Amino acid sequence: MAIEGNRTDSGSLDEAVEHLKEAEAHLEHAREDEAKAEREVKEAIHEIEETSQRDEVDVHVIHVNELEKATFKEKIHATLQQVWNKSYKELKLERKPKDVFQTASAQPKSLMEHLQLTLEQARDRKVIEDFHFGIASETGGA
Fold first, then answer.
1. Is residue 98 part of a domain?
2. Pair 110, 100: CB distance under 8 Å
3. Of 56, 63, 123, 135, whose CB is crowded by the most CB atoms within 10 A?
4. Each residue's pLDDT tens digit, 3-43
5. Residues with Cβ < 8 Å from 16, sequence gap 6 or more?
6. Parallel, antiparallel, or unpaired for β 56-63 and 100-103?
C-alpha cells in the first residue's frame, strides 16, 4: 500500500479488500467441501461395518473328547480349514495328529475331504447344515 503524506492509495486498499473477500469465499467453500467429505467418510465406514457384520456368522465348536466348547465370529468366506485352525485357539487346546474336524449333528460327518471349502460353499453344497462343528480325537484302545 502506497502512502503519500497522510493519504493511502484507495485503489490498492480496495483491491486488497476484494482479495480478502475472495479468499474468505474460497475458505467457506473449502469448509463446506471438508464437511461434505467428512460425512461421506462416516457413511462409508458405516457401510463397511454393516457389510462386515453381514459377512460374519457365529461358529460353535465342541471338542468331543475334552468336552470343551467355544463360540466365535468368523467370516462366511473363511475356509473350513481356517475355522478348524481357529477352533483350537478358541478352545485353548493343541491339535493332535489324529484329530478329525466334523459336523456336530446327531450323526457327525467328517469334513476332512472338504477343508478347502468356505463356510458359504459348504452350506450351499449341503456339506454342512449349520455352523456347529466338532473335533474328535481318535482314542487308544485294546
1. yes
2. yes
3. 135
4. 454 455 667 999 999 999 999 999 999 999 999 999 999 99
5. 1
6. unpaired
